[in-house]
Amino acid sequence: MNQRHDIGRRTLLRDGSLVLTATAIAPSLLMERQAFADNSANAVRIGLVTDLHYADKPPAGSRHYRETLDKLEAASQQFASDQPDFLVELGDLIDAADSVEVEQRYLKTINTNFAAICDERHYVLGNHCVDTLTKQEFLAGVEKEHSYYSFDREGIHFIVLDSCFRSDGKSYGRRNFHWTDANVSAEELEWLRGDLKSSSKPTVVFAHQRLDVSNHHGVKNNAEVRKAFEESGNVLAVFQGHSHQNDLKEIGGIHYCTLAAMVEGSGLQSNGYCVMDIQPDGTIKIAGFARQASYQWDV
Ligand SMILES: [Zn+2]
């Protein structure tokens, strides 16, 4: 099945219309897809982890903070054999240390191990990342400049979102927020709409707080974010963490996949991480390890 036909099927599902022809696709999109199809792009392979909550402290409830180091080591062996193009960490890399100095030490420890796995890495900000640190301190610790941005790889468009903003638009940082008050800021939302408009490539989004639920784990203004995704017509899937358990919803033809937290449970059988392959036609296959579920979605 060619690219044009695949996109047509997605449009069909979105609109709920029984009639579809190539003319239903905007000319610019069609041209881009055609060019993309001619480029014989390769599949993109991504290693995914979330909610590591690393801290050198005893377990609390089901969270085994110190064991994250061993679990990440196990994941790194799998990644070494699968050779992902890049890694994405979906937030809460660290937990919430009592002092900035201690937190920076924990961040350095976990990120040194994480950075050794793969040269290219992307970090989604989690609420815990900026519980003790400021955004600037966290980003400096992982050698990144921006908390939200996009990039292209092999004909796929990727977006990293930051939902660590309070309802009043102020950035989270240094215990100035309540974790249930998660928002995509007005400025970021405007950027997102423009970014989605500027690309006609199949798009995959990475987030921490959930964009598919309206409970405490959900981003408060996630309906606006989903609307932007749906209007673009290009978003295939959203990957998120935050609620620590496997979950999958489909809203407006887009998969919202929540990944298992690495920090949950003792022993390597409780680990959670996955390797995702995105084919040029938008087919997504996720190989989950330990507690992480596996999925395969055709376009
Ligand atoms: Zn978490």
Topology of this protein?
Elements: H1 3-15, H2 27-38, E1 44-49, H3 68-82, E2 86-89, H4 100-115, E3 121-123, H5 135-141, E4 149-153, E5 156-160, H6 186-197, E6 203-206, H7 222-232, E7 235-240, E8 247-251, E9 254-258, E10 272-278, E11 284-290, E12 295-297
Helix pairs in contact: 6-7
Overview in brief:
This protein has 299 residues and is of the alpha/beta class. Strand 11 and strand 12 form a beta hairpin. The strands form two sheets. Strands 3-2-1-10-11-12 form a six-stranded mixed beta sheet, with helices on one face. The protein has a six-stranded mixed beta sheet with strand order 4-5-6-7-9-8, with helices on one face.
Task: Give a structural overview.
This protein is an alpha/beta fold. It folds into two domains: 1-40, no CATH class; 41-297, 4-Layer Sandwich (Purple Acid Phosphatase, chain A, domain 2). The chain is built from seven helices and twelve strands. The chain has helices spanning 3-15, 27-38, 68-82, 100-115, 135-141, 186-197, 222-232, and strands at 44-49, 86-89, 121-123, 149-153, 156-160, 203-206, 235-240, 247-251, 254-258, 272-278, 284-290, 295-297. The strands form two sheets. A six-stranded mixed β-sheet has the order 3-2-1-10-11-12, covered by helices on one side. Strands 4-5-6-7-9-8 form a six-stranded mixed β-sheet, with helices on one face. Strand 1 (44-49), helix 3 (68-82) and strand 2 form a beta-alpha-beta unit. Helix 6 packs parallel to helix 7. The longest helix has 16 residues, at 100-115. The radius of gyration is 19 Å and the shape is globular. The structure holds zinc ion (ZN). Residues 51, 53, 92, 126, 128, 242, 244, 261 line the site of zinc ion. It holds the Pfam family Metallophos. Residues 45-245 form the Calcineurin-like phosphoesterase domain. InterPro entries: Calcineurin-like_PHP, Metallo-depent_PP-like, TAT_signal. It comes from Aporhodopirellula aestuarii.
